[in-house]
Design goal:
With about 100 residues, the protein is an all-alpha fold. It is about 75% helix and about 0% strand. It has one domain (about 5-100): Alpha Horseshoe (Serine Threonine Protein Phosphatase 5, Tetratricopeptide repeat), CATH 1.25.40. Helix 1 runs antiparallel to helix 2 (about 20-35).
């Protein structure tokens, strides 16, 4: 499947069920990989602010995107929340920052 097909599939799933957290997350990940950061942030905001997810990866990804956008305070808040939800992320985050590569 191409990224565009995955986005279309996720969008259809969201249209059918606006509470489909997995579809929002999948679409956000693909949008992020395509460097469509504003659109990815919108999906992540929906997951966190509206659907009230407790998925550490969602907070981590939003933190990464917020940092890319220069929102250091927001990025730090999200990374703290991600670590609160999953302390094992510390090892992953340490490697990410040392290498300079993010998951997006």
């Amino acid at each position: 499947m191409t990224p565009f097909e995955i986005i279309a599939q996720a969008t259809q799933a969201i249209a059918a069920n606006p509470s489909d957290a997995a579809a929002y997350k999948q679409r956000a990940l693909i949008l992020c990989q395509m460097q469509q950061y504003d659109e990815a942030l919108a999906d992540l905001d929906t997951l966190i602010d509206i659907l009230q997810t407790d998925d550490a990866e969602v907070y981590q990804l939003r933190g990464t995107l917020r940092m890319k956008r220069g929102n250091k305070t927001g990025a730090l808040d999200d990374m703290r929340k991600a670590l609160d939800l999953n302390p094992d992320l510390l090892t992953h985050l340490s490697g990410e920052f040392q290498s300079g590569k993010s998951n997006c």
